[in-house]
């Protein structure tokens, strides 16, 4: 676990930043509409990415035609729209608990079948952990 501390901290930080970004997106969506929010936020992302590409060279840009990149970009837009639309009706905590539970479900399948890397077995400890988390998700969403 100590060897993975940086990755653990980065993933945890991404969760923190994601909750703040989604809440900000929801507020922007209230003023600009959801489509205006997606276009505006995505435009800023493109500008930031362009600056990074210019600093690191345009060689990374050659993979833009990858179908995976197109799919990932489309999924990002769908996620941004779904999360920011849901926050105003069920709240940030419920949305992110549901997002995380969806991620647990899909990542379990991805790991088990080895869709993007080596397959990882589904152990009894993992199954019990997922069940406990899902009980917590159900309880929290029901309480909201």
Helix content range: over 70%
SSE string, helices as H and strands as E: HHHHH
Roughly what fraction of the amino acids lie in strands? Answer: under 5%
Termini separation: 34 Å
Helix-and-strand structural type: mainly alpha
Biggest sheet features: none
Coarse shape: globular
Mean pLDDT: 85
The tally of strands reads 0
Count of DSSP-assigned helices:
5
What is the radius of gyration computed over CA atoms, rounded to a whole number of angstroms? 18 Å
Q: Please give the oligomerization state of what you see.
A: single chain
Poorly predicted tracts of residues: none
Q: What is the number of independent domains? A: 1
Organism: Neobacillus ginsengisoli
InterPro entries: YdcZ
Keywords: Membrane, Transmembrane, Transmembrane helix
Transmembrane segments: 35-54, 66-87, 93-115, 127-143
Protein topology:
Blueprint: H1 5-32, H2 34-56, H3 67-90, H4 92-113, H5 124-143
Structure description:
By secondary structure, the chain is mainly alpha-helical. The protein has one domain (2-143). The chain is built from 5 helices and no strands. It has helices spanning 5-32, 34-56, 67-90, 92-113, 124-143. Helix 3 (67-90) packs antiparallel against helix 4 and helix 4 packs antiparallel against helix 5. It is globular. The two termini are 34 Å apart. The mean pLDDT is 85.
Short descriptors:
single chain, 144 residues, mainly alpha, globular
Question: How would you concisely characterize the structure shown here?
Answer:
With 144 residues, the protein is mainly alpha-helical. Helices cover 81% and strands 0% of the residues. The longest helix is centred in the N-terminal third of the chain and has 28 residues, at 5-32.
């Amino acid at each position: 676990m100590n060897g993975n501390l940086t990755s653990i901290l980065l993933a945890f930080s991404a969760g923190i930043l994601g909750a703040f970004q989604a809440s900000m997106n929801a507020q922007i969506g209230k003023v600009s509409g959801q489509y205006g929010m997606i276009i505006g936020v995505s435009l800023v992302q493109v500008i930031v990415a362009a600056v990074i590409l210019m600093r690191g060279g345009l060689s990374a840009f050659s993979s833009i035609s990858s179908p995976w990149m197109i799919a990932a970009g489309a999924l990002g837009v769908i996620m941004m729209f779904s999360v920011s639309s849901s926050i105003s009706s069920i709240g940030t905590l419920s949305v992110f608990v549901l997002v995380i539970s969806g991620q647990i479900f899909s990542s379990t399948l991805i790991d088990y079948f080895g869709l993007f890397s080596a397959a990882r077995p589904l152990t009894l400890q993992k199954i019990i952990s997922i069940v406990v988390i899902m009980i917590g998700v159900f309880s929290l969403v029901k309480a909201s």
